[in-house]
Amino acid sequence: MSPVPPLAQHASPGGSPLPEGWTARTAMADDLDRAHALVAEDHLDQFGEVDYSHDDMVEEWSELDPARDAWLVFNPAGTLVGYAKLNPRKPHWFECTSTVHPAHRHQGVEAWLVDRIGQHARELLPRSPPGERVLLAHLFNGRNEQEARLLESRGYVFARRFFRMQVEWKAPPPAREPPPGVVLRVFQPDREAAALHALHELSFADHWRHTPEPFEQWSAELRLERFDPTLWFVAEAAGELVGFARAREFSESEGWVRVLGVHPRWRRRGLAQSLLLRAFGELHRRGRHKVLLGVDSDGRSGALQLYERVGMRPVRLIDVYEKDLGLPRLSQGQTCET
Ligand SMILES: CC(C)(COP(=O)(O)OP(=O)(O)OC[C@H]1O[C@@H](n2cnc3c(N)ncnc32)[C@H](O)[C@@H]1OP(=O)(O)O)[C@@H](O)C(=O)NCCC(=O)NCCS
């Protein structure tokens, strides 16, 4: 077991203080269970259900360093009441979330976490490749006005709204034939991982805040214990991959479609619909009648209309507020422009 990190000062550097007697520290690997339990309680309170599984957190903590990027706040009784994390997977778009236990809200923990994560982002800034500005992005429940006001008071601005979409199939979903010349089948990770990575990059090149990802990083998911290639579907035409839908089981009754993309040359022919219905069909066969996914509320990509077309409806809002941290300046004493 790793040694317990030192407890933090009451105040995050330059930020608001914690109440007297409350403490904070960065996380250790074995904090994962309690951090997940806290997030689950927060979700239940805010949304009436939990859509972030223990596996999701395992996956996310594999992308960050909990001892550096995740912060925990404890009340004087030693109970975990707050958690925030910064995911540095994209070197110019740091993704953050913070959570406070429903019984301990509005006592200053929210502000402490936001300030601590902001400070941490500045500390990380010199590690990002130079030449491009770094944005700090906070994701939170779009109906949480207080979180929005808090972030605005710290210089964040509204950037984007995402919808959590949902559909529930009482009967098996209908199938839809792909366009002529296209075959749908299950992904074969041993021989086409590189081709799928290339198609992913091509399909998402114009997507909001997309950052090209090296193959090594993209393919980490293929090595996760829960990776199930029989829920990854690809569309092939004349020996080339032209579309894909990546789904997974979420709970005993729910599935997720995590990513869907179609080669630009093959768009507006019903291919995404065929892939989506194929994924819904397989999830339904496995007892996952409810399917969820996230989509940009900005309709310009066509993804929102596509999901509405297959019967999905928004059930949750996820807002992204951003703050521009400036340019990493490696050559000038590792300072950052703000
Ligand atoms: C979104 C995307 C998957 C759609 O793929 P597609 O194969 O072109 O979609 P389909 O042909 O099956 O479209 C089905 C329906 O969705 C809607 N739709 C799809 N693209 C649209 C667009 N650009 N504008 C408006 N509506 C659109 C339409 O209702 C369409 O039916 P119609 O053509 O009969 O009007 C594709 O544009 C893409 O890969 N975009 C980039 C990646 C992305 O945004 N993925 C989704 C988020 S995870």
UniProtKB/TrEMBL annotation:
One of its GO terms (molecular function) is acyltransferase activity, transferring groups other than amino-acyl groups. Keywords: Acyltransferase, Transferase. Residues 22-174, 182-326 form the N-acetyltransferase domain. Transmembrane segments: none annotated. The keyword Acyltransferase applies. SUPFAM superfamilies: Acyl-CoA N-acyltransferases (Nat). It comes from the Bacteria. This is GNAT family N-acetyltransferase. It comes from Corallococcus aberystwythensis.
